[in-house]
Design goal:
The chain has 18 helices and 15 strands. It is an alpha/beta fold. Strands 6-3-2-13-12-11-10-9 form an 8-stranded parallel sheet.
Length: about 550
């Protein structure tokens, strides 16, 4: 077993090759310091999430907070000016941190690349530590890769590499392979601290800086915790305060009521907000899963034109531009469809229409999941956004009330058997791949990550719990859901999906209308934990 040589720190995962260069005593000391300082607050904030949900269950309503009205009503304060490499973010590509994908994303012609330790990565110990190696090499422009067939991947040399942004895991996750004083390290702190320790100064020397995306935030106090961590981290490494920049994903319904407050807490480090649309839909289902008034139709019917989605987008753009930061659009999950030109054209037309809607709404940039979509997104933003951003489009006419953010009435939306089967199929295939080490999975011509799989399992819980009916009148009972689950599982090849049985077990546990785990990732995580020298749990 790897010896950390740091008091109170145990590394339980197997360390191979260059991974020891990431897990140095100095780096682990830095991780441990941040964990010891801030993990108690993290735990308190997670408990506050649970308390908040219990209040919603008991009848509390979500609304803009009266105690922070002075922040919202003060129209004079602004966040930090855009940092180098973040002025023009018209197209951002996202993806996991494996070596080939990092190279392809940096070369893609997108303005920035969000390297994702969160929803598009399966957090196996190897993936995480190897991902940190890839980040180190990407910052220093030394990253290269040769595949089994001898094909070489290298960075372009024309100076047009995407600016690197890193997304650590959310506050709810813990890193089981690293113990600090006998407790699991905060996964957020683990991912952030290792990247910052090894790359803060090198990224500034390369012409950009240590930039981050912050996921799953539910309250402005969670943003304050990140800001406190940023300040201590910068002080510890003698990096000037304000060097860090962070874009917060507004992907929870609670955070939608606190956009000003979140920017304010991070104002010296803020680089804007992002419409994390898939997680946002998941969050709405999750927070109101007990309430039949919030039953949503098939995922395909929940579009950006849905009232609650449209309201949140308009409010986000207005808020960001008032405060002088980027209002980033959402993910296009489509991928090229081979051997079907008509289907591929239809998919690309959807991407084009989505990006046109975003740029006309006033967004400053957008997300894509595949390099082939970069050109389409660039064409739409280049045509309509002739400046580096659209901060000057203030959307002052927008007036969004609490009722608008909570309006889930979707005209014409239906629950169908195809929707039930689609959710089960996506959930099963994604979960089986995640358990096998892959967190970014092409399914049914879409690039699925944990966020879209969360919608699938949460809708199934919601429909079963409230005995929802499909359009043809079928009641979605636990028995019906279990029957469809086994029918869909039978269509999958166990050799292709060696963890299929475990995926069926986990998926089935969420479809009875009783048990509901906070996150798919926490539901499955212990099954991918492998202590060095012990047998895998899979």
């Amino acid at each position: 077993m790897f010896q950390s040589k740091v008091s109170g720190v145990q590394v339980l995962g197997k360390v191979v090759g260059d991974q020891a260069d990431i897990l140095t005593p100095e780096a682990l000391t830095f991780v441990a310091k941040l964990h010891r300082l801030f993990n108690p607050t993290r735990k308190q904030l997670l408990q506050a999430r649970e308390d908040r949900y219990r209040g919603i269950q008991a009848g509390d309503s979500l609304d803009f907070l009266p105690e922070t009205a002075h922040i919202r009503n003060n129209l004079t304060w602004r966040a930090a000016a855009p940092a180098p490499g973040l002025v023009d973010r018209r197209v951002e590509i996202t993806g996991p941190v494996d070596r080939k994908m990092v190279i392809n994303a940096l070369n893609s012609a997108a303005r920035t690349f969000m390297a994702d330790f969160e929803d598009s990565s399966s957090p196996t110990w190897f993936n995480l530590v190897d991902g940190q190696i890839n980040m180190r090499d990407a910052v220093r422009r030394t990253i290269a890769f040769t595949n089994a067939q001898g094909k070489e991947y290298k960075l372009r040399t024309d100076g047009k590499l995407a600016t690197l942004i890193v997304r650590p895991r959310g506050w709810h996750m813990e890193e089981a392979h690293l113990l600090v004083d006998g407790e699991r390290c905060s996964a957020s702190i683990f991912d952030f601290a290792l990247y910052f320790f090894h790359n803060a100064k090198a990224s500034v020397a390369a012409g950009f800086g240590p930039y981050f995306y912050l996921p799953k935030i539910e309250h402005y106090l969670e943003a304050r915790l990140w800001n406190d961590i940023f300040n201590v981290a910068q002080d510890e490494l003698a990096v000037p305060r304000g060097t860090i920049r962070a874009t917060v994903l507004i992907e929870t319904i609670v955070a939608a009521f606190q956009m000003d407050e979140i920017i304010y807490e991070l104002r010296d480090h803020s680089s804007g907000l992002n419409c994390g649309r898939w997680d946002y839909i998941f969050s709405v289902i999750k927070k109101f899963r007990h309430d039949p008034r919030f039953i949503l139709p098939d995922r395909a019917d929940v579009t950006m034109k849905s009232p609650f989605m449209d309201a949140y987008v308009r409010l986000l753009i207005k808020t960001c531009h008032l405060r002088g930061v980027h209002a980033m659009g959402g993910m296009a999950a489509q991928i090229p469809i081979k051997n079907d030109a008509a289907a591929n054209q239809a998919a690309m037309d959807k991407v084009r229409a989505d990006k046109r809607r975003e740029v006309l709404a006033g967004h400053d940039g957008t997300w894509v999941a595949h390099p082939a979509l970069v050109t389409i997104a660039l064409e739409e933003f280049d045509q309509k956004m002739t400046s580096s951003n659209q901060f000057h489009i203030r959307r002052e006419e927008v007036q969004v009330q609490a009722a608008d953010l909570l309006n889930t009435n979707i005209e014409g939306g239906k629950i169908t058997e195809a929707g039930v089967r689609g959710n089960i199929s996506v959930g099963l295939i994604y979960m089986a791949n995640w358990l096998n080490g892959s967190g970014c999975v092409p399914i049914h011509n879409l690039m699925e990550d944990a966020a879209t799989a969360e919608i699938s399992r949460s809708q199934l819980y919601q429909w079963v719990r409230h005995a929802a009916r499909t359009a043809d009148g079928t009641v979605i009972t636990p028995e019906y859901a279990a029957k469809v689950l086994h029918e869909e599982a039978a269509k999958l090849d166990a050799k292709t999906h060696p963890t299929l049985d475990l995926a069926v077990k986990f998926m089935g546990s969420q479809m009875t209308g009783t048990r509901y785990d906070d996150f798919l990732t926490t539901l499955c995580y212990d099954s991918i934990v492998k202590v060095d020298g012990s047998p895998s749990k899979l």
